[in-house]
């Protein structure tokens, strides 16, 4: 991911505009995305997903967040493979509790809980040619952050020039509701962990190196992650 002026290019997709509101916008990861649609699977509330979570439980976990500055819509859970739903899993590691481990090869982000377990989130990651690995830390955090497209992006996509002075926070902003900015040795790496409204992106490699979680998952991780938290990005 490349960033100008301290704001992120949260990654790019190679796809065009998708359905509904997104059809009126540029691709979320190349520029921005539209809102997720409602919970289409509520009628299946009595069924269970492959990992044992009922559809009703998933719908609650990824339901709307109306009290935010910009009300967040529910995730269309029918567009997310159940294996990417948030859950607690066994995770043996010597890393300290709170450490974030990104596993781009399997499209997961883990938060170490310190009792032999971790909270696991489904993620989107960098596409081929844009992946990276190594140790970093959370250098700063942002809620509904302003996004400024980098000059490199504007050259590739002239339509992004309208936001050269910054896109205000909001549902259409590529950074989403919450952002963790990753640093190494006091310098911003140009990579982030960000909030995505694009349910179909989870479990795919679409970004320019950043890591996206469903907005509800990102808010959960963000609230438990202080500045200086260690982040390990594993090789894909």
UniProtKB/TrEMBL annotation:
InterPro entries the UniProt entry points to? LD-transpeptidase, LD_TPept_cat_dom, TAT_signal, TAT_signal_bac_arc, Transpep_catalytic_dom
Q: Which residues form a coiled coil?
A: none
Mind listing the UniProt keywords for this protein, alphabetically? Cell shape, Cell wall biogenesis/degradation, Glycosyltransferase, Hydrolase, Peptidoglycan synthesis, Transferase
Where does this protein act, in terms of pathway?
Cell wall biogenesis; peptidoglycan biosynthesis
BP GO annotations: cell wall organization; peptidoglycan-protein cross-linking; regulation of cell shape
Pfam families per the UniProt record, alphabetical:
YkuD
Q: Which GO terms describe its molecular function?
A: glycosyltransferase activity; peptidoglycan L,D-transpeptidase activity
Family that this chain belongs to: Belongs to the YkuD family.
Q: What is this protein called?
A: ErfK/YbiS/YcfS/YnhG family protein
